[in-house]
Amino acid sequence: MRDDLLKFLKHDSETRGATIxxxxxxxxxxxxxxxxxxxxxHIFDGLNNxxxxxxxxxxxxxxxxxxxxxxxxxSTLATQFSASTTLYNVxxxxxxxxxxxxxxxxxxxxxxxxxxxxxxCLISIxxx
Length: 128
Description:
The chain is α+β, with helices and mostly antiparallel strands. The chain folds into two domains: 1-33, no CATH class; 40-113, no CATH class. Helix content is 28%, strand content 21%. The protein has two helices and four strands, in the order αββββα. Strands 1-2 form a two-stranded antiparallel ribbon. A two-stranded antiparallel sheet has the order 3-4.
């Protein structure tokens, strides 16, 4: 069953241009590649009624714990978003917050951008 699901996700990701991140089932994150010259809002078409729960994670920790979707008055999301907020607007807000957090870490010297030559393992293969 698990292998069938992974095969399906692999095929679907290749045909739709998405990346599937699967650490363990049932946790699966789908990240669709967004290109500058393409309107990326189509990623969320039809997804507003899809999730049962949403969560915001950053650097391996919950920023917003798993919360029922759609937003209900007792949800932790209700303090940040209105009940009529779309999944797209929630994701966009979280992405902006993550960007700002990353920039703050970069300014403080706690995070670097780009490749780190001292952390890259280079392998040289020669064919004689």
